[in-house]
Amino acid sequence: MTHHQPKIDTSPKVSDEIRKTTCYMCACRCGINVHLKGGKVSYIEGNRDHPVNKGVLCAKGSAGIMQVNAPSRLRAPLKRVGPRGSGEYEEISWDEALEMATDWLAPIREKHPEKLAFFTGRDQSQSFTSLWAQSFGTPNYAAHGGFCSVNMAAAGIYTMGGAFWEFGQPDWDHTKLFMIFGVAEDHDSNPIKMGIGKIKARGAKVIGVNPIRSGYNAVADDWVGITPGTDGLFILSLVHVLIKSGKIDLDYLSRFTNAPVLLNGDETSPEFGLFLRDDDGKPLVIDRNTGKLAAFDTPGIRPDLSATHRAAGVTHRPVMHHMAERYLDPQYAPEAVAERCGITPEKIHRIAAEIARVAFDEAITLDHEWTDFRGEKHATMTGRPVSFHAMRGISAHSNGFQTCRALHVLQILLGTVEVPGGFRFKPPYPKPVSAHPKPHCKVTPGAPLDGPHLGYAQGPDDLCLAEDGSAARIDKAYTWENPMSAHGLMHMVISNAHAGDPYKIDTLFMYMANMSWNSSMNTGGVIKMLTDKDENGDYVIPRIIYSDAYSSEMVAYADLILPDTTYLERHDCISLLDRPICEADAAADAIRWPVIEPDRDVRGFQSVLCDLGARLGLPAFTNADGGQKYADYADYITSHERRPGIGPLAGFRGAAGDEAGRGAPNPDQLDRYIENGGFFVNHIPEGANYYKPWNTAYQDWAVGMGIYDAPQPYIFDLYVEPLRKFQLAAEGHGERQPPDHLRERIKATLDPLPIWYPPFEDDHVDTAEFPVHALTQRPMAMYHSWGSQNAWLRQIHGHNPLYLPTKLWEKNGFADGDWARVTSAHGEITVPVAHMAALNENTIWTWNAIGKRKGAWALSEDAPEATKGFLLNHLIHELLPPKGDGLRWSNSDPVTGQAAWFDLRVKVEKTDAPTESQPAMKPLKSPVPQGPDHLEWKVGK
């Protein structure tokens, strides 16, 4: 018989139109081609021209089709008609919703602007929302960074003017050794996957430091299964070995850091430990050529790392002396730290030797001429091809700020920052910390705040304190409890508002922040706070306005719901003023735009704020005649100027659209972005793309782009002087003094040189009773809570087990299908378990945000996310357990206030399997119908 090969169309037409925009299924912000049939999304692929992903797209990005068709999408504005948590709402018009919001907010603004607490979640428009809050006049604004990764950002900016992820990247083209710390699969995932593939293809080595060997750590050549919370100790042990063996870049340290800067050595002086400065306030060094004092940036000098200055019987030593004295101490030797870190001394020695070998024996040189900020010309660029990357795993501890600082100091000691093969900044970074605003909190009824909410405190004078010394902000950011809290403390807002500490608020206004579920420590407690009533029967938090695109757990607790669009139905601006998509060799930004129109009565939240701002008469959102200044967010993007010639988007500026960085607003700017694939790129000239903080060519290019108004070269801060200023206050110097109960903590933890101390929970619980560390991390396929109502992504992660290492698995006699009771000092959960051998032997973990509350997200009550899925959040509290001192300390880093999610200690016991994960809360009544059991649709013919 003759076999007839069937005719198969291997290249079917998937669309009749392609629209290029930016993905929002995680924070990578990849470029995507959205294929449409009949005006509906039929297929999403990566944009090969895009600077972020170059065509690569992950499962989340492809699954965006399901996101815009999710049954859980909110359909219209909603007004609560039953008790909070009942899910009883009635649909109202936008006019009624905005009138209601205006009626609530206008009296607050006229009398007590601070009684509005406006906090946003994982939105990507924080330069816009912060402007709205500043114009309203409330000091109570921040986004989710305070419970995500502020330690990483603040430590990097205070130390070297930038940090990992959005601030910089490894030199993928030249690095030969890549070391990652605490990196899960959710952040920057496509660029990291592409980068790891590139470096491994040419034989470079990857070392992963993480208690959990999944994702990137699974493909690492060497895995360090470290004990949670000890990364800083491990890093400082590497520093000890490298300094002791002389494997540090002394020339780099003397030229580009404050290692040679002299510190005041007079122990009787109120300036003890601060920089010696000249009459212009510039830090002083000893010039090796003359042996005399000189300002650090004096042309022609050679700063001396070893020379001291003797005056009036006092010896003033350079920072390098203090570093050597500290880190050569035997307490940092591998033999002293290894057991605590959960690794062997030999492994620490071996990794240090490998770092040193690659950095110094395999150094590379590029024939690029450049001129430094002292006017010295260099014929070449020398690189030490070791690069590092880190994220939340080392950041979300109560010692996270100092741990992140330690990692940056390690990079700098090796001379691997802003050199070929090392870590490179992405524009608009690097920026000296002094270029950033300081925090502002002065409230004037009926007027804007006196400046930006968030910034970088340089000393006690910058704290946000009321005249009586109490906190000016509801989250207590920038107080003596956490003086350098650059992103605020979103995890403390509801708790403090409920307690009326430091004062009561009237309205809690939140966007895309699932605070009644996976975004809160103490989930059950927060739910009670949101529904609690006072002795008069009124809600303790009187009003809650919430905006989201989906029927999340938080929706059930709002009084007024403003439904947002999905990311393919609105304008967004990925701005150099906010969270850009730049590469190390280029400035870049991007837009989202409505590639499809909503089929519901919803509006983009940013456009709603433009309308609401005008109704409230906010100066930044009204014209001189009182009319609405911006018709919508798209109008804001093209028309707004942060300062003359500088707007949200850097590309296609000027009347003709031919200017970059600086230029007058261009009314056709968005159309030009759309024509260009949704993004704009401006490459840094060759010869200007390394040594950015000190390279005059880069500085001039940055001025032309509007990143700086004038060149701002600076040196890296191995020693962070603002930290010393807070210590001096705790020692009794200065007019602003901390409360007595915080003095010792400030002196111990705000050290200007990186230190390590045990996570705070270790000191507040019985570690013999709670011997196990418990962590979460986000999976590659689930970045937002949104993912669990995405039909495709649910097939990858329908529920989450608790992963146990072999030691605990065998000790408790677990088998496949078993369940465990997990108990902390705060709470208890009962959950399914699974065995994982590639795990620190005293650590358990699970995927974050998979577990859902029944009734939310349009899921059925027997959905696996609600019956087998769970949260570790039930085990965590926003306050540390009582210690007998009469105080309840915040479960946060004492420097920045970052939530210490990963300090959690628990005990694990085998238990009988319940019918579903515990605690099992009462189902929510959703304002949207439950999704169908079978989700199917066809686009086009």
TrEMBL record:
Q: Name one GO molecular function term.
A: 4 iron, 4 sulfur cluster binding
Going by the entry's taxonomy, the superkingdom of the source organism is recorded as Bacteria
Query: Could you tell me the keywords of this UniProt record?
Result: 4Fe-4S, Iron, Iron-sulfur, Metal-binding, Oxidoreductase
Where does the protein end up? Cell envelope
* UniProt main location, coarse: other
**SMART domains reported for this sequence:** Molybdop_Fe4S4 (SM00926)
Please list the cofactors this protein needs.
[4Fe-4S] cluster
Chain ranges of the 4Fe-4S Mo/W bis-MGD-type domain: 16-72
For this protein, the record's PROSITE patterns field holds: 4FE4S_MOW_BIS_MGD
Name a GO CC annotation attached to this entry: cell envelope
Question: Which family does the record claim for this protein?
Answer: Belongs to the prokaryotic molybdopterin-containing oxidoreductase family.
Protein name, please? Answer: Polysulfide reductase chain A
Extract the ranges annotated as region (Disordered). 911-941
